Amino acid sequence: MNLEKIFMKFPVLQSQQLILKKIEEIHLQELYVIYDNKHVFQYCGIIPKHNIQTVSKMIGRFERDYQKKSRVKWGIFHKDQDNTLVGIIETMDVNQKVNMVTIGYFLAEDYWGKGFATEAVRIIVNFLFEEVKINRIQAEVMPANEVSKKVLLKNGFLKEGLLRQASVWSGKGIVDLEMYSILKADYIS
């Protein structure tokens, strides 16, 4: 695992239509639109934020988490729409002993169904396997979240099973989670 690829300098990643980069104060309004929408977090352990000052403070938390090397939140930006923030993708729970990381992602409701989540996951998976030399990438999904499961399956993840009453998620209580993963050995770039 080469964590310097992540934490030496904030990595900017891109594909033909998306760029994944740091979320900054200039993105506050777009970030607020995402966090203010209860539909975005229907299947996440995140409680919507209805106060723009609260969302503004979150940008500072994103930076602190990055500096602590505990979590990286990339903004998902659409290149053809003046670099509009369309969502967030993150890595968290880095486990160096096992050489593994967990990912999570969500999009602004206006950008659902356009393939952006699938493409953002593809970008992150490629970066984590090819640059960071991770061996295992995993994602936990609420069983009812069919769309997220499809995103992972399209990117080569396998469903490993159901973790019954395995986690406490904000606003949801104790939840069942399905575990999906992809190993470097499974990955075809």
Strands across the major sheet, in which order?
A: 1-2-3-4-5-6-8-7
Alpha-carbon distance between the two ends: 18 Å
Q: What does the radius of gyration come to?
A: 16 Å
Tally of DSSP helical segments: 5
Mean pLDDT: 94
Structural class: alpha+beta
Helix content: 25-40%
Q: Roughly what fraction of the amino acids lie in strands?
A: 25-35%
Q: Uncertain spans, ≥5 residues at pLDDT below 50?
A: none
Q: What is the overall silhouette? A: globular
List the secondary-structure elements in sequence, H or E. HEEHHEEEHEHEE
- Total beta strands: 8
Instruction: Let me know the largest β-sheet.
Output: 8 strands, mixed
